[in-house]
Design goal:
By secondary structure, this protein is an alpha/beta fold. It has a domain at 3-301. It contains 13 helices and 25 strands. It has helices spanning 3-11, 34-43, 48-63, 100-108, 113-118, 137-140, 149-155, 157-161, 174-182, 415-423, 428-439, 441-444, 449-467; strands at residues 24-27, 85-87, 121-126, 129-135, 145-148, 187-191, 201-206, 213-214, 217-222, 227-235, 243-245, 248-253, 258-267, 271-274, 276-281, 286-295, 298-301, 304-307, 313-322, 327-336, 342-351, 356-365, 373-382, 388-397, 403-412. The strands form 3 sheets. Strands 5, 6, 8, 9, 11, 12, 14, 15, 17, 18, 20, 22 and 24 form a 13-stranded mixed sheet that branches. It has a 10-stranded mixed sheet with strand order 4-3-7-10-13-16-19-21-23-25. A two-stranded antiparallel sheet has the order 1-2. Helix 2 (34-43) runs antiparallel to helix 3 (48-63), helix 3 (48-63) packs antiparallel against helix 9 and helix 10 packs across helix 11. The radius of gyration is 21 Å and the shape is globular. The two termini are 18 Å apart.
Amino acid sequence: MELNELLYELKKKEEFELKVDVKPEMKLPAGLNKELIYEISAAKNEPAWMTEHRIKSFEIFEKWHEPNWGVERDELNLSKIVPYVKPNAKKTNNWEEVPQEIKVAFDKLGIPEAERKYLAGVGAQFDSEMIYKNIKEELKKLGIIFIDIETAVKEYPDLLKQYFMKLVPPTDNKYAALHGALWSGGTFLYVPKGVKVPLPLQSYFLFGNPGGGQFEHTVIIADEGSEVTYIEGCTAPKYDVVNLHVGTVEVYVNKGAKLKYLTMQNWSKNMFNLEIKRAIAEEDAVMTWVSGSFGSYKTMVYPATILKGDNSVSDNISISFAGPGQHIDTGSKVIHIGKNTRSTVDARSISIGGGWSFYRGLLKIGEKAENSKASVSCTGLMIDNKSKSDTVPIIEVLNANSDVGHEAKIGRIKDEQIFYLMSRGLSELEAKGLIVKGFIQPVVQELPFEYAIELNRLVDMEIESSIG
C-alpha cells in the first residue's frame, strides 16, 4: 500500500485524531542548507562551540551515504521537511503559564495529572522546543538536574561538552549527522552519586505541524551508585504529508548505578521515525531498555548498550506493532566488553492487516569479555495471512569462555485458539485482543500501572483500527 492510500484509509478513522492548532512564533522554510542552520542557532542564542558543532555535522551529512538497510525511504524527501518550528510559548515550570491550546492537548494525554499523582518530574515538548519542565523541590535539593538541553548548553557547558554526541557522533551515520545539525529540544538529566530517585521522571514529545521534523536530544547521566527511571512518550496528529522524527538519546550509567529507560511511541501513520538510542554501562552498572513502538509509517530504532565495565548488565524488552501499510524495523544492540557481563533481549512483534515487523539485532561478545552470558529471544506474532514478520539476529562471539543463547519464533494466531475463545462468548475482535495482550505481558509488567493501562488501550485501538 502506498503512503497516500494508507493516509486516506486512516483519515477516515476520526476517532483516533488528536489535532493541535497552535500558530508558531517562528517557522523556518522547508529545506536543508547552512543558512537555515545558522538561523536555528541564532534563534537559540547559542555559544560559538555549539554553532560550530552544527555546521560540522551538516558538512558530514552532505558527504555521508544513506544506510543501505532498514526501511525504504524513497518517499522521504528531506528538502521538503521543515527543520525548525518554534511554538508561541515561553519556557516555564508553571503549568498554568502554558498556552491554553497546547495545555489542552497535553491534558488529553494525561499531563499534568500524571505529574500530580506519581511522577518526580515532567517535561513537555511541542514541535521543536521544550516548553515545560518541572521537578519536585525535594529532588532539586538532592542535586538532581532535570532541565531542557538548551538551558544545559548555557548553564552547564563544561559538563555537557563531556557527553553531548560522544556516544552517538555525527559520523555514526547520515541521520546522526542530520540530527547533529538540526537538533532542537530534549532533556538533560543528571543524578548525583548515591541518589536514588523514588519516582519516575518523564518527558513527553508532541508534534503539531504538518511537514515538520522533530530532532530532540536527550542526555542522561546516572552517577556512581545512583538509581533512576526515565519515561519517554511521543505522539502526533495525522497529516496528509510526511513528517520526520530523528531523536537521539545518550545514556551514561556509571559504576554501580541503575537506570531504566521506558519508551512509549505512538506516532501518527505519516511519520518516518528514525531514532538513535545508545547507552554505556560502567562496572557493576545496570541498564534497562523497555520499548513500545506503535504508529508511524516507517520506523528504524535499535536501543544499544555498551557493557564496558566488569559485571555490568543490560536488559532489553520491546514490543512493536505493525498495522496496515506500516514497516516497523526495530531491534537491539549489545556489545560486551567487560568481564562477567550479562545481557538479555526479549523482542516481541505483532503484525496485522498486512503490516511488516522486522527484528534487527546485534550481539557481540568481545575478546576480553570472558565469562559473559547473553540470551536473545525474538518472537513474532502474525494476526492474519497478509502480514509479515522477519528476524535478522547477528551474533558474534570472540572468546570461548562465554555462554550465549538464541531463540526465534514466528507464527500466526491459531484458528483453534480463536474458536475456543469465541465459544466462550467473546467476539473475534475480543479474542484476538486477549491473545495479543497475553503475548505482550512481559513488556506490560515492566511499566508503571498507568502506562500498562495505556499500552493495553493502544493494543485495542490498533487491533480495532486494523480489523474493524
